[in-house]
Amino acid sequence: MFFLIFAVWLILNGKVTAEICLFGVGISAALVFFMCRFMDYSLKKEILMFRLSPLLIRYFGVLVKEIVKANVSVLKIIVSPGLQPEPALVFFETDLKTGVAKTMLANSITLTPGTITVSVEGSRFCVHCLDKELAEGMEESAFVELLKEMEEKETKWRG
To answer: What is the per-residue pLDDT across 84-127, written as a single tens digit (0 to 9) for each?
Structure first.
């Protein structure tokens, strides 16, 4: 993280001089110290994120695919005057344990057109869907499976 902050410092300054490098080293070190002290940052967490990056990339791919599919469904509803949407509130429970995983799931649902996460209470989600078709299989979605896999990998690694 130190090197990343230092690189950003150099890029934003636009030139490399001894003064800029010295200030950059000092500011980068101060920021890393601040992050470790007050933001619960550690090298162990950095390594964990590196290990989870293939799953995060896969998750992003699934998210894009689901957004495209939902866009097509919403477009059908908009373009077809005879097709009347049947809005629905869907409640479901999830086995996700961490707050980060639950937040990622809630945000992914909200990013997908036609669905909005209304509330998350513990492991119970309430989602508003533009149409019943968009609500099908939400609790067993690819999002949930990938997030569970990430949690398992994190648990094994911290083990």
So the answer is: 888 989 999 999 998 889 999 999 999 999 999 999 999 999 99
C-alpha 108: how far from chain center: 7
| Pair (151, 99) in one structural domain | yes
Three-state SS string over 145-157 comes to HHHHHHHHHHHHH
Using the Cα atoms of residue 101, residue 103, residue 105 and residue 108 in order, give the sign of their dihedral. Answer: negative
Check whether residue 20 and residue 83 sit in a common domain. Answer: no
Q: Note the Cα 27 to chain centre separation in Å.
A: 29
What is the pLDDT confidence band of residue 71, given thresholds at 50, 70 and 90?
Answer: very high
The domain of 66 spans 43-158
Burial 88-114 (b: 16+ CB within 10 A, else e): eebeeebebeeeebbebbbebbeebbb
User: In terms of domains, do 27 and 82 share one?
Assistant: no
Task: State pTM to two decimals.
Answer: 0.73
Does one domain contain both 96 and 142? Answer: yes
